[in-house]
Design brief:
This protein is an alpha/beta fold. The chain has 14 helices and 13 strands. Helix 12 crosses helix 14 (300-308). Residues 11, 14, 16, 34, 36-42, 194 line the site of adenosine-5'-triphosphate. This is Amino acid ABC transporter ATP-binding protein.
Length: 311
């Protein structure tokens, strides 16, 4: 568990981060979202002490970060930034193994870890481990950057706009990969973005920053359904709110008995998918299947009722 307790950063008369407190549960993703200059990066950099807080403290599994030497702390906390920051003259394998090497892991253990991570990121180890960063696409470099940050199984992974430089299609893929890998490894992640869509898609919890203050901290559904301030409502976008909410609810939750025409959707598909299937094909309902077997249907009326029940 990560506890952030009244953490503040001032630069002269300017308060960049203003008494932010929040708790991050082990094995979850917290996304910090806000506009430019709201203090997101400063908050993140105080957690691994790239910036020293002016007040407040951070505890990782009960241990205050100021009681540790910064270089020890940074070995326990992975850090991935936009543009990945790979070492250009080291191979992919050495880049990923950089922290385990610092920690004096035996060579065969480092190699096994590098190969395991490459496989997790769908990159064939034999094809990639000996290449140099310049021989990779932008998306592949980004994956190597995240793999490097995860290599020593850190207590916490900090990510600052990790997908900022990727085009929209690769970006969605990268987000899905991160989610899958985080669930597989049980990693604890804090990720900074200015993109609310990304926050909602990736976060177990979303923390919204405005003018250095934490203005709301909750699940994506809570943020969408009940924005705490006008600023949060603006970030979520009023018009998009119902659709965003529907995108978080699996069709399996409102499935009812009965049949419907046309191609079935899996129970794990979102209500947003079900709505768009109905609208696109002019149907009042879509059939739902679970493990390949018919499981009932989702109707437009049920989708509408669920979208209204957000209070
Ligand atoms: N070293 C510094 N000296 C003075 N002011 C700073 C310093 N670092 C950051 N600031 C100020 O603190 C505020 C918060 O900056 P920060 O980089 O944390 O914002 P951000 O939300 O991450 O923005 P962005 O999305 O643009 O990166 C800004 O107004 C910035 O100008």
């Amino acid at each position: 568990m990560i506890e952030i307790d009244g953490i503040t950063k001032t630069y002269g008369a300017m308060t960049a981060v203003d008494a932010v407190s929040m708790t991050v549960e082990t094995g979850t993703i917290t996304v910090i979202v806000g506009t430019s200059g709201s203090g997101k990066t400063t908050l993140l950099r105080m957690i691994n002490r790239l910036e020293e807080p002016s007040a407040g403290e951070v505890r990782i599994n009960g241990e205050a970060t100021h009681s540790l030497k910064p270089h020890i702390l940074r070995r326990r906390i992975g850090y991935a930034i936009q543009g990945h920051g790979l070492f250009p003259h080291h191979t992919v394998g050495r880049n990923i193994g950089a922290v385990p090497e610092l920690l004096n892991w035996p060579k065969d253990k480092i190699r096994a870890r590098v190969d395991e991570l490459l496989e997790l990121f769908s990159m064939d180890p034999d094809a990639f481990r000996d290449r140099y960063p310049a021989e990779l696409s932008g998306g592949q470099q980004q994956r190597v950057g995240v793999a490097r940050a995860l290599a020593s199984r850190p207590d916490l992974l900090l990510m600052d706009e990790p997908f900022g430089a990727l085009d929209p299609i690769i970006r969605t893929r990268a987000q899905e990969d991160l989610r899958r890998i985080q669930q597989r490894l049980g990693s604890t992640i804090m990720l900074v973005t200015h993109d609310m869509e990304e926050a909602i898609r990736l976060g177990d919890r979303v923390a919204v920053m405005d003018g250095g203050k934490l203005v709301q901290h909750g699940t994506p559904a809570e943020i969408i359904a009940a924005p705490a301030t006008e600023f949060v409502a603006d970030m979520v976008g009023d018009v998009e709110r119902p659709l965003r909410l529907l995108s978080l609810i699996p069709a399996g939750e409102v499935v009812e008995e009965g049949t419907a025409n046309g191609e079935a959707l899996p129970a794990s598909a979102s209500l947003r998918d079900a709505l768009s299937a109905c609208l696109w094909t002019g149907r009042e309902a879509v059939p739902i299947e679970r493990d390949g077997a018919a499981a009932g249907r989702v109707t437009l009326a049920a989708i509408r009722a669920r979208a209204e029940a957000h209070g």
